[in-house]
Amino acid sequence: MITIKNLSKIYRTKKQNITAVDELNLKIESGEIFGVIGYSGAGKSTFVRLLNRLEEPTAGEIIINGKDIVKQRKNELRLARQEIGMIFQHFNLLWSRTVHQNIAFPLEIAGVPKKERKAKVDRLIELVGLQGRENAYPSQLSGGQKQRVGIARALANDPKVLLCDEATSALDPETTDSILDLLVDINKRLGLTIVLITHEMNVIRKICHRVAVMDTGKVVEQGDATHVFQNPQQDITKRFVRQLDGSEQYASLSAAVVKEGTGTIVKLSFSGENVNQTVVSQTAKQFDVDINILQGNVLQTQTGAVGNLFLQLVGNESEVEKALDFIRGANVKAEVQELV
Amino acid sequence: MFEKWFPNVDIADLNTAIYETFYMTILSLIGTFIIGIILGLLLYLTSRGKLWENKIVYGIVAAVVNIFRAIPFIILILLLFPFTDFIVGTIRGPEAALPALIIGSAPFYARLVEIALKEVDNGVVEAAKAMGAKNSTIMFKVLLKESMPALVSGLTVTAIALIGSTAVAGVIGAGGLGDFAYFYGFQRRQFDVVFICTLLIVIVVFVFQFIGDLISNKLDKR
């Protein structure tokens, strides 16, 4: 669907050259929700703006639907852009137009006749759940409603691809969830390919099938979202994963355990089908160890569940070892944690 | 009553003066609007990072605008006499004041247009680009449309400055309330004439301001 080869963007100023995107290669499949995560300054925003050439690439190829966007001339590019929807962090609606008129704008640009426009806009308003607000102006809408208008507008010309530039970063958590649900819904219903840029791991977890982690203009890690969650390789990825799995609190947790003095602390990691197993209660029954559950969580991702459980095992050493072997035998990853 | 307070005012002459003032103000306002929008758009579009970024064009337009804004209006009229004579065929009367009025206030309005356009959120322009809009669509449907309230209030300010300029032009024979106040009032020492002209000009200014604010507020949906 989208193939990116050796894509670079270098900003040249008099004093220095800044490489925002550095020889980037990526393949995004048709119909998937592809997330790009990175801290600010990682080049992810530049990256997504290169995809429809809001920024001009310095080098490389961007092939969308078999056409190299980079090589296209002005008019071709204009037509290509009509098939690439985009939503923005700050919505970028025209305040002088009503909801209906805002959504109709891309249709006006594409030269759709007035009658068809009306019918199309009505359908889009229903799709994003804004019935009854057609004649409101953007200033009368909440942030979430504004982004719904943004989404409807982006979908107006039946694009194959939807680019989301930090689309939920200006929204509160609850509104973020409802917008993400809407994106998943659209992805399923319309088979739309979504490329999403964010700095929130939570967004990736909730809706992305695959994820790429960006740092200093490069993709440092990529793969299925569940896989990356389970086995983060790079430090930066581990930091993002830690936002979610509770190991952030682990330090304070282990300090509390040290006061208690005894036991081995183990982190169990579950993924996919083995999440619902009863391995903990089985361990307690079969071995002479006391199990104290310190902390745990299970996160639902788009491609399955991911869970972590911090246990304190108290008992004699050989019995604890046997218990650990049993757990590992049940296809659950178990790591003994050092007390920090 | 009127004759008691304003014994020297000839109603017919006064009506002509009011008509001429409106004539000059409205026609020159139309001219100023058209030329000001064009120059303002040019200033905006050729500035850095915009659609038609071009240092040379920007430099030339900015220089022309600044030069004409720097010339005091009364001197501009004198300077433009040959030009006016050529275009209008006369250097007297309200028609003859139009070139100087337009050339004097269009650069002023152009700067206000430029400021208004700068206020349009760049993100909105970008969104339109991402939708595949042509530059002309961005200009008319995004930039001008979104900045409409500021364009109207800028035009109101310009209109009021123009009313002042018509009075100045009146003193060198353009007609209107300025002309009336100067020749019939000041030179004949009939101060009731000066007074009624002042009063009328103040009312005209208030009316323009009121209408301008009304339209601007109506357009502003922010």
TrEMBL record, chain A:
UniProt cross-references to InterPro entries, sorted A to Z: AAA+_ATPase, ABC_transporter-like_ATP-bd, ABC_transporter-like_CS, ACT-like_dom_sf, MetN_ABC, MetN_ABC_transporter-like, NIL_domain, P-loop_NTPase
ABC transporter domain span? 2-241
Pfam families annotated for this entry?
Answer: ABC_tran, NIL
Which SUPFAM superfamilies does the UniProt entry name for this protein? Answer: ACT-like (SSF55021), P-loop containing nucleoside triphosphate hydrolases (SSF52540)
What are the recorded GO MF terms, alphabetically?
A: ATP binding
UniProt key word Transmembrane helix: no
Q: What is this protein called?
A: Methionine ABC transporter ATP-binding protein
